[in-house]
Write a structure and sequence with these properties.
Strand order of the largest sheet: 3-6-8-9-10-11
Helix content: 10-25%
Order of helices and strands: HEEHEEEEEEHHEEEEEH
Structural class: alpha+beta
Number of strands: 13
Distance between the termini: 59 Å
Strand content: 25-35%
Radius of gyration: 18 Å
Number of helices: 5
Length: 195
Amino acid sequence: MENEVNEPVPKFNYVSAEDYLKMERTSQQKHEYYQGEVFAMSGASLNHNDIFTNLFGHLSLKLKGKGCKPYGSDLRVHIPMNTLYTYPDISIVCGKPETTDNAFDTITNPCIIIEILSSSTKSYDRGDKFNLYRQIPTLQEYILIDSETVSVEHFVRTDVHEWRLTELKDITDAFMIKTVAIRITLESLYLDINF
């Protein structure tokens, strides 16, 4: 058909960021938002929660009174450059948290983001989500902790568009979160974890 015109398909389920936030602030369940779409987030396994508890407790203790603070997955992160609103498992902010509005429940300036991987999230967290996270100007380190096997992937920003990856797969390994000068052993991360 020579005269056929292909027009873009309209998005019937488009949600504005304002409507998303209005809905999210009254919702019992967490949702991510990206470019007009809203995605329900799933719950977490026992291993996921135990790894979170092991790490968050350690970070809270080591960072107390040092100008940097860890936050759990109830604090939303927004990336204005790509519209993403999401809930990292742990985000660390050094200095004053920059919030999107006076509700004070969404930050834009984490310097470290930590995600605890599950079978349903690991591809997204390693791929598309990391691509979106890299657009946060303040982000210096991205840490992925597997909840199904002993494995940590530690990305450190070395330049504006460059990240260095260190992989750790032995329970006797350790790594340094350089931005906050905290050493983490895999043994402490995986304490009491059963695979």
